[in-house]
Amino acid sequence: MNIGIIGLGTMGMGAALNLHRKGHRVTGCDLRPAARAALVAAGAAAVERPDALPEGLDAVLILVVNATQEEAVLFGPEGCVPRLPAGAVAICSATVAPEFARLLEARLNAAGLLMLDAPVSGGRAGAEAGSMTVMASGAPEAFERAGPALEAIAAKVWRLGSSAGIGSTVKMVNQLLAGTHIAVAAEALALGIRAGADPKVLYDVICSSAGNSWMWQNRVPHILAGDDTPASAVNIFVKDLGIVLDQARALAFPAPLAATAHQLFLGAAALGNGAKDDAFVIRVWEALTGIALPGKT
Amino acid sequence: MNIGIIGLGTMGMGAALNLHRKGHRVTGCDLRPAARAALVAAGAAAVERPDALPEGLDAVLILVVNATQEEAVLFGPEGCVPRLPAGAVAICSATVAPEFARLLEARLNAAGLLMLDAPVSGGRAGAEAGSMTVMASGAPEAFERAGPALEAIAAKVWRLGSSAGIGSTVKMVNQLLAGTHIAVAAEALALGIRAGADPKVLYDVICSSAGNSWMWQNRVPHILAGDDTPASAVNIFVKDLGIVLDQARALAFPAPLAATAHQLFLGAAALGNGAKDDAFVIRVWEALTGIALPGKT
Predict the structure, then answer these.
(1) Considering CB atoms only, which of B156, B169, B187 is closest to A257?
(2) Which of B191, B202, B208 lies nearest to residue A255, judging by beta carbons?
């Protein structure tokens, strides 16, 4: 496939490299020169702005941060839609509100393009290994067109429905769980430390017990290592749990655990950790209780 | 080993059958005739009261519901302590406050007995398969004495320290996570249903995504099947999160997620579901939002 990847962050770079390795013709797009240079060094092409992507693309894979950016790279003044041939597919993988995904599909269809509402999960490791989970919905032709690209980046592609919206709905539920699991991992680890448990031993025990979660296993090591370099930042869950709560409110649906977790991520951001790794939501408890976090010299 | 098992519920029965199968001399103890009959049918012995356990036991394994019962079966009017020979070990596996475990150890030591503070995790499946996780602390002699019994019931025995307390501390952290994970699984599934997702598909997608947890994987199938027969009941988490919050309060430690989850289990109990499977904390959202739960005819 001749494919453009817009957004060369953790997820986009992983996807771009996998697509390139598997023989697709890849052009990345990112404002940051370092990201473009890294992709070019791997042998693929890169451009700064979406309206500089090559003509005749089969697909664009969009792995930007939020709905505003997704709208901008498609329909903004520097957007790529005018350069896409009829029948090309926009694989939209940012975490957005289901309603936004539905509106975007209508606009893309009106422009003669296909859309896949295709949020992803799997983190940096999944992106690098080409083993992400894709939660996708869209027209059968969109799935067909996007097939080889999805195969290159994902271990599992879920076909959740024949129009945009349900893909983002399922991703929203995943983010509710993922964000709350990170926050409660921090709460539990902090309580264990306060009560005198060894954090490393506690980590190992929980990994083999009923209290385990994907996030406990994946994020607690960041805390144990004292490494707050963001694999995914606190601000991502400020945003994603915000989307969850906006949607829940629109449905008059009470979500007390997601709301509490959101407040904890906001607390971590208020403490100046918005751009730090999301596991460092634990700094809320460090600030409140004075516990000593591991990994400090 | 010549061992008594006090409490033949889900966990105790699984442990007793595994000990019997692996050649130990097993006497179960439970007030309920049906539980005793089941153990006797499997070829082991059973008695109604702890003071009717055979003399000369090497160990008693206590798998009762709470601290009050644990105290009663050891030191109450019908307790077994007077019948235990010097140097026998009490393997105390109920979920209790760390402070209670420390006091119990002092009393048992004063009576010439050893104690292992040895809460377990792994659920019904782990108990039946003899593959529980044991989070244990106690004197080296207590570990030595209890060794063959633990080997028969557990896939993994954690040695967390040389006196009682830290075993129960680690279990408390596990229960904080486990309880909150069940409540947020219910919150997320309910929101997904409300937003139009197919609950069975949602379950499968999350199992392969970053939102997964041991509890999501283990408990959501109960909801999908509409089967509220308790593997573990709502009231167990009313109790266990209560222990977590009492301990946290004693440490002046704020635990907003555990506190919110506790309120949700209390809500489910208020609705009349205290004795139902803990996954049916989801009935809080059923009651509030009128969503249709799966598995109903």
Answers:
(1) B187
(2) B191
Tens digit of pLDDT for each residue in B134-153? 999 999 999 999 999 999 99
Query: Using CB atoms and an 8 Å cut-off, which of residues 169-188 of chain B contact chain A?
Result: 169-170, 172-178, 180-181, 183-185, 187-188
ipTM: 0.93
**In this predicted model, what pLDDT tens digit does every residue of A155-199 receive, in sequence order?**
999 999 999 999 999 999 999 999 999 999 999 999 999 999 999
Question: In sequence order, which residues have a C-beta less than 8 Å from that of residue B77 and are 6 or more positions away?
Answer: none
Rounded Cα distance, A145 and B173, in Å = 48
CA dihedral B115, B118, B119, B120 (to 10 degrees): -140
- List the single residue in A with minimal CA-CA distance to B282: A255
Question: Taking a contact as any Cβ pair under 8 Å apart, which residues of chain A between 237 and 256 contact chain B?
Answer: 244, 247-248, 251-256
Which residues of chain B are within 8 Å of residue A123 when distances are taken between CB atoms? Answer: 210
Alpha carbon of B103: minimum distance to chain A alpha carbons (Å): 17
Instruction: Give the separation between CA A251 and CA A238, rounded to whole angstroms.
Output: 20
Rounded CA separation A54/A141 (Å): 23
The one-letter amino acid code at B201 reads V
What is the DSSP track for B85-112? PTT-EEEE-S---HHHHHHHHHHHHHTT
For chain A, list the domains and their CATH numbers: 2-163 (3.40.50.720), 169-289 (1.10.1040.10)
CA atoms within 13 A on the CB side of B187: 35
Q: Is the sign of the CA dihedral A178, A184, A187, A190 positive or negative?
A: negative
* pTM confidence score: 0.93
Choose among B161, B224, B218, B164: nearest CA to B189: B224
Count the neighbouring beta carbons within 10 Å of the beta carbon of residue B195. Answer: 22
